[in-house]
Amino acid sequence: MSDYKYLKGKKTVGVIGCPFSGGQPRRGVDLGPLRIIEYGLLEQLIDLGWEVEFDGHRNLEKLRPTYDPDIGKLKQPRFVSKVCREVSKTVESHVRKGQLALTLGGDHSLAMGTVSGTFAVHPDAALIWVDAHADINTPETTTSGNIHGCPVSFLLGIAGKVEGFAWLKGCLRPEQLVYIGLRDVDPPEKKILKQYGIKAFSMHEVDKYGIGKVMEMALDHVCPDRNTPIHLSFDVDGLDPSVAPSTGTPVRGGLTFREGHYICEAICETGCLVAVDIMEVNPTLQDEASIEETVTIGCSLVRSCLGEPATQKEVLARVGALNIQVNNLCQFLPQDKVSEFAQMNPPELLVETQRAVGDAQLGQWHESLKKLRNEEKDLALSAKGDSEQVENLEKRNQLLERDVTRFRERESIMRRVRLLELRIPFARYAAAKDEYDRAKREREAAHLNYKRIEEEHGPATRAKTSIERNAQSALQSRRDNQDALRVKTTEIDRIVQRLEQLEGDGDDARRAVSEAKHKEKQRQNRIAGLRNEIQQLEAVVAGPPPECNTEEIQRQLDAVNNRLRQISEDMAAIQAQQEDESDEQKTVMRQYRSCSEQRQALANVKERRLESLRESDSDMYNAVHWLRRNQNRFAKPVYEPIYLEINVKEKKFIDAVEAVAGQAILKTFVCQTAEDYKLFTGEVIDSQRLRVNAICCVDKVLENFKPPVPLREMKQRYGMECYLLQQVEGPNPVLTVLCSEANFHAVPYAAKEIDHESFVQSVRSFRAFTYICGDMQYRVGFSQYGKKLPQSNTFRMRPGRFLTDSRNMQRMHELDAQLNSLRERREKIEAAMQRLKREEDTFRAEDEELREKKHQLTEEKRQLMKERTDYERAKVKLQARQQSLDDELGRPNYLTQAESQFRTIIQDFGRRRCRLVKDYQVALREILRLFREKTGAAFKHMQAQAELVALARRVAERDDALREARTKFNDAERKFNAAKDRARQLLDEAKAGTDNLDEQTRQEFQDVGRDMTLEELEDALVSERAKAELYFSISPHIVQQYNQRKAEIDALKEKLSGKESRLAELSTEMTTIRDKWESKLNEIVKNISAKFSAAFDKIGCAGEVRVSTHEDYDKWGIDILVKFRDHEKLQVLTGQRQSGGERSVSTIMYLMSLQELAKAPFRVVDEINQGMDPRNERMVHSQMVQAACRPNTSQYFLITPKLLPDLEYNERMKILCIYNGEWLPNKFDWQKYIKNKQRSGNDAKGKKRKAEV
């Protein structure tokens, strides 16, 4: 069973019964959940190991509105909406609690509630919808208006706005949905599926790919990582009506029983299942058997979803209903099995008797008892071992208890030491707190004294403050004047800088004049250079232009280019041909490899046959490998076992070949010389002791073995197809052995029935003859005496075992022909490829020559063009230079222009300098004014300072007292802060030691040293440490070992308790099963024994059947006790103690005792009377007739080569005499024979009466 990834805690299934039919018009579907629960679904889920939380069958009828008119085409929309909303909340509650939600419907409109409830918890879940219908109609496309055909459109959010359904938002995306089993889909639904790209697997895909592949593809689509929650909504009409007939909308051609269950099993195996719907079970539409079948299927699907494979149980249930042994329809008791029956030990006889006459429960009870007893023995042995181990561990722990006790005492002391160490910081904090309180009081007193002195010193301080304010005002005025003076000074500095800048601008103007002179000189130089260059260019262009006739060269280039293009096209054509040939070559090679692989697979039959010998016949396997290693030691090849060397051309002849040849011949090695035979048998059989067969075919030639009748005559006269030899392929020596040892050349074969009598008469010239007809083998012999009448034996051939994988020679020949054809095609392609390669090489060589010639012509043309180009370039350059000269001559004189600009700049400079000088004079006067104001403010400040000094001398004495008070206050403040910091630090340290204490330690800490002083705590700590030192140090490893062992002891005791509980459960369970099984078994054996004893009484013997018990149930048995002589005691029937006739009598008596109890409808008794004396045979036959001819009993078939005369006869029996033999006449007068027998009987009676007289 898979682990469910999305369930929490114990596996719990929340079962929601929804008896609802409002989504469709048929009544009865609301009864489906009730019938499923009544059928025992909840108990079945509990048996699977699930916790079940059943909400009961919900009263959904109370939600029906009083008025619910249609909305468009939709019927009962408000009722359906309310019910689905209620179901949605319930499903969501179960899923959110980590339970698997199982909803039993009800019509399929409920899926709007179940799916939305699941997706409220798992919005990324997947929905697998198993249904014959898509149920995706919208309110516009539905033709019936039944909402059970529309739920998926509402879930996808494509149904539009419908009154009452506002609560149902589109919770499902198309990629989260997959359909399985569709086969009745409306055209609008098909359009919707295609429009939204919804994955759907119809029954066509199920038939095409198989349900396994369909489930793999479906899960890959919605759950590719196998880690997505899955909601399975299963409409039982997805199944074929032959499987689930009682449903409202059945459609033929649906899922089979196994396909439906495989879907559930595959989803269960993912471990992702979170919710299941089982819908549309309607127990009112069919007969009771069909209803029960559908309800059973519904329960079975649920069990498969929850981890139970649904196969064998269903089959066994159906078989059990037949009340017969389907696996033992016919009990066959041939004479050669009597010894085996007698040699059967009592436990085996008990098992077979239960199987023959008991119901299925009897055998199941016995098997359960054997399993439970084995489990009890194993568990008792395991419990004994655990008990001994507990005792051993307890003894070992007792040795450590003293040390552990001392360790714990020391741990207790060390724990108190630790608590004292934790308490001391708090004591130190208490002392620091006292110091803090004292410093606080001193600080407050100093502060009060300081305030008093400060108030007494107030008037002088205020006068001083006034004078200081006046001094400060004078000082501020001085500073403001100083700042204004600084601003004006900065302004004068800027004026001076601007004057200096004007001087610099004059220098720049003078430099510009100098640069103008330099530029003018450069212009004159350029004019001279241009005139010189123009003279040179005029000399170049003075003569006529050079000739440039390239027409001839161009014609040659055109010819070369045309030829290159032609070569390129030809090479492209060749390359295209090469690609075609290459593609064809690849295709041929693929076909060749495929054919070769197929032929190799066919030819590899020999190795597969040999490998099968590894387990079945290791001697032959080893002999074959020895022969392969030593083949060079033989004069001629020695052939491996015949069935490794031969091949049957057609499979229909395999059974005949194996039947005629026989296993011994097929497993025979074939030697061609006497020396090789002697060497092989000496090495393999004598030296290695390998049990194999070998034969030597010296002086035998295959051509000497001719068919007795020409094949043409066999076909025309008797309908024979062939001789077996014609259907076998192999080396000639091997075929020779088949002819010499099994007459393969003389065994004809016919697939259909022939006229056997005519055929047998035609081969009378042979002493013996074998032929095959269909699946029967006929062996015909002729008597050497009298009329030489034919004697025939008929055998049904067994299916072949050795040659079943024979090569299909026709297919091999076809493959050989294909391979030869492919080789020829490959050779042709290779030749064509080589031809094309040669042509390509020729074209490439010509291409290279032409390209070299093209290069030469191009260079020659370029040279001619260069001379003409140089001439034309000189003309153009001459014009450009003349234009440049004209431009230079047209430019103005740089020097004249610069001098004019210089004069303008000098005039402007003079005007600006005058303005700056005026500004300088104004600023200088302002500076003088500010300097005077600054000096007056300085005098005022000096006066205020003098007054302040005079006042300071008067208040100096009072200031000293105030400073002293201030100093005392500051000292008190400092001491207070230090005490405060110290106390806070000690408190933090103390708290840090107790922050991580557990509750128990914290409680102990509260009780330790609460009222002790710091000195007392330190003394107590020293004392406790001294106590701890009195205990020697014990390794914690010993304590750890002790605790681990104690935990192991506790675990073992708990485990032992569980085993003892299980032993008690097993004992109770075995007692319960044994009471039922033993009572029923004793009753059956008592009935068998009574019939068995009565049967033996009738023949003057004694017999008894009883149950032998044992503490192990697999050793319980049935003892058959018999006594055939008066002086003997009852003895157990065995294969050695009694004679063959006695065993036969005991066997038939026991079997007849089972007659009324057995469930096998047929019995075949073959030669059971062999070995009996006439008296016993007559009495046994009489009892058999009485037992077999009762009404309503199993049918007996007694097959025997002889019967005593005057045996008991019953009109319910039928006697069939099969007679043949060489002494029988061609015609037999039965009336005469009967009269003679009657006359003989009357004579015998008359003699008897005379004798009595």
Low-confidence stretches: 321-327, 332-336, 1247-1253
Structural class estimated from helices and strands:
alpha/beta
Largest sheet, in brief, is: 8 strands, parallel
Distance between the termini: 88 Å
Shape descriptor: extended
What's the alpha carbon Rg, rounded to whole Å? 60 Å
Identify the strand order in the major beta sheet: 2-1-3-8-7-4-5-6
Helix percent reads 55-70%
How many strand units?
23
SS field, number of helical segments? 33
GO biological process, one term: double-strand break repair via homologous recombination
Main location: nucleus
Protein name: Structural maintenance of chromosomes protein 5
Family: Belongs to the SMC family. SMC5 subfamily.
Detailed description of the structure:
- The protein is of the alpha/beta class.
- Helix content is 62%, strand content 9%.
- The chain has an 8-stranded parallel sheet, with helices on both faces. The chain has a 5-stranded mixed sheet with strand order 13-15-16-17-18, sandwiched between helices. It has a 3-stranded parallel sheet with strand order 9-22-23, with no helix packed on it.
- The longest helix has 101 residues, at 894-994.
- It is extended.
- The two termini are 88 Å apart.
- It catalyses: L-arginine + H2O = urea + L-ornithine.
